[in-house]
Specification:
3-stranded antiparallel sheet; 5 helices; alpha+beta; rod-shaped
Length: 157
């Protein structure tokens, strides 16, 4: 006759020391999986934002490189084999391009950091803040600051 707290085979029906440990192990793996998904999501978000920001800087640089120095061109003080860039017009063209493509709306704390023009090329540098989902614990609630720069040459330059 089986004893008290035992089944027909003599095993304890009250469970052993290991009862419930599989549940704790599965919960641990679930938390680990969620953390890994969060890290991958944040890394993907940063990567895509960096590519988009580089594309934005490239578009602004190309727009700025189109701002030729009309005064120098029309007065004949330049060689017709090159089109010099007007630095003030280049900055205005870069700002106009960025205002028209919606970059200020698409990013947090978007800024045009630099427009440096020489007679033959323009360098544009932009930056923005990207908020992270799970990385906010490590990077802070403001996220990470990304920057990108691009250079474009004047047509015929």
């Amino acid at each position: 006759m089986p004893g008290r707290g035992r089944d027909a085979r003599g095993r304890s029906d009250q469970g052993g020391v290991d009862q419930g440990s599989v549940l704790i192990l599965l919960l641990g793996f679930a938390v680990l999986a969620l953390v890994l998904v969060g890290v991958v999501a944040d890394l993907s978000k940063v990567f895509l934002a960096k590519r988009s920001l580089a594309s934005t800087a490239d578009g602004a640089a190309i727009a700025a490189a189109q701002a030729i120095d009309l005064e120098a061109l029309y007065t004949g003080s330049v060689d017709l084999g090159s089109l010099p860039i007007d630095a003030r017009a280049a900055e205005a063209a870069a700002r106009g391009h960025l205002a028209g493509d919606g970059s200020a709306i698409a990013y947090d704390a978007f800024a045009l950091d630099l427009v440096e023009a020489t007679p033959i090329q323009v360098e544009v540098q932009v930056s923005a803040r990207v908020a992270l989902i799970f990385g906010a614990f490590f990077a802070g609630p403001d996220g990470v600051r990304l920057s990108a720069s691009a250079t474009a040459r004047s047509p015929l330059g």
